[in-house]
Design brief:
- Helix 3 crosses helix 4.
- By secondary structure, this protein is of the alpha/beta class.
- It has a single domain, classed as Rossmann fold (3-Layer(aba) Sandwich), CATH 3.40.50.150.
- It contains nine helices and eight strands.
- The longest helix is centred in the N-terminal third of the chain and has 26 residues.
- Bound molecules: S-adenosylmethionine (SAM).
- The site of S-adenosylmethionine has 21 residues, from helix 3, helix 4 and helix 6.
């Protein structure tokens, strides 16, 4: 097990302060089990539960995103656009925009996409609250079911774009999204953070040699402070980067 790099731990501590005024209580285990089986319907869950869900996963997925980009793109990447696919509360892109690896050009664009309008609202609110990322970014949220007819065009054809999918492919796979459809969501630079089974599934079914893809799998031990925030003493991180 590896320890969390100190600068990443500091970013999470900073995020936890910015994020602190949030729903009280803990997520019901039954809800967590549904999420992990990919059977959670964000549209059907009443607001307090959605808040609890997002609270439970926000810092954890933010931390996984920071560890993933460090493993996958250690030399860093500067882009003009970021798309957060199945953004939920925005944890992944918010954290990455505060990372040392990801830089956005001034007036760079961020596109949040989720099938749930409540999640888009929550992500936009979090972006407002956690402005340590990039005060000058151009932010847009889109409600869109990416398993369906909708396609994901590049934001601007000539602009370098990073697409991030953090724990959204697992739900698309669980709802029967075809490999061709998942493949159509890749583009530019693509960082997938997800369960190991999803990463290996994607690797074997939708990645082509020309994608120059690498996968990484790590287990980290957490300090006492992080354990109390994340709710567990260690963290498994699986990611795939294609470009
Ligand atoms: C487990 S949450 C992860 C949220 C966030 N990316 C994170 O890392 O914390 C999965 C998100 O993917 C969204 N999602 C699932 N299937 C989707 C689809 N077909 N199209 C768009 N969004 C989808 C859900 O609404 C949910 O907000």
């Amino acid at each position: 097990m590896k320890p969390i790099p100190p600068d990443i731990e500091n970013t999470i501590l900073e995020l936890s302060v910015l994020y602190s005024e949030y729903a009280e209580g803990s997520i019901p285990l039954s809800l967590r089990a549904l999420v992990e089986k990919g059977e959670y319907d964000y549209q059907a869950i009443p607001e307090p539960s959605l808040k609890l869900f997002n609270k439970y996963y926000f810092l954890r997925n933010a931390l996984k995103s920071l560890l993933s980009i460090r493993a996958a793109i250690p030399d860093g990447l500067k882009v003009g656009a970021v798309s957060d696919i199945g953004c939920g509360s925005g944890a992944a892109s918010i954290a990455l925009l505060g990372s040392r690896e990801l830089k956005l050009t001034s007036n760079g664009k961020v596109r949040l996409i989720d099938q749930s309008s409540d999640q888009i609202k929550d992500a936009l609110k979090n972006y407002e609250r956690i402005s340590f990322s990039n005060p000058l970014l151009v932010l847009n949220g889109y409600v869109s079911d990416l398993s369906g007819e909708n396609t994901l065009e590049p934001m601007e054809p000539e602009t370098k774009e990073l697409r991030i999918a953090s724990y959204s492919f697992c739900e698309m796979v669980a709802s029967g999204t075809s490999p061709q459809k998942l493949r159509s969501l890749l583009g530019g630079h693509f960082l997938l953070i997800d369960y190991f089974t999803v990463i290996s599934n994607v690797f074997s079914s939708i990645i082509e040699e020309s994608d120059h893809a690498t996968a990484s799998r790590q287990v980290y031990s957490l300090s006492d402070k992080l354990t109390s925030l994340i709710g567990q003493p260690s963290l498994k991180v699986n990611c795939l980067y294609a470009r």
